[in-house]
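ARCHIVE CARD
CATEGORY: sequence design from structure
SOURCE FIELD: tokenized fold
FIELD CONTENT:
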């Protein structure tokens, strides 16, 4: 089960999270999300635990607990929804649609 951990202090490492969560069971993986441009931690991460019961115990036991001076926000991770684009129509892009007034598209007699 995948667990979301938010409100992480910048100093928190993957090892810190693994150490805190392994008290509830086996930790399969730990990921702290970083800014792709600066490499700085974004303040949240994910923990994967194989068993649902131990993951739920970890959520109940760690939500609100302090780690490096900040209370953690811990809950079951939700799958990302496909946000798609900005709802663009089919005729957008450079130059827009090919309507009237775009040279050469109309015949003149």
């Amino acid at each position: 089960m995948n667990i979301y951990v938010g409100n992480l202090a910048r100093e928190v490492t993957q090892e810190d999270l693994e150490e805190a969560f392994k008290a509830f069971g086996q930790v399969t993986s730990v990921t702290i999300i970083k800014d792709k441009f600066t490499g700085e931690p974004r303040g949240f991460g994910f923990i994967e635990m194989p068993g649902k019961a131990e993951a739920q115990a970890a959520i109940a036991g760690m939500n609100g607990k302090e780690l490096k001076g900040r209370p953690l926000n811990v809950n079951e991770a939700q799958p990302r929804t496909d946000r798609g684009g900005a709802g663009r129509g089919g005729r957008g892009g450079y130059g827009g649609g090919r309507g009237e007034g775009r040279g050469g598209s109309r015949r003149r007699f």
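CARD ANNOTATION: Strands lie at 2-6, 29-34, 41-48, 66-67, 70-71, 73-76. The chain has a mean pLDDT of 87.
SHELF: design records, drawer C
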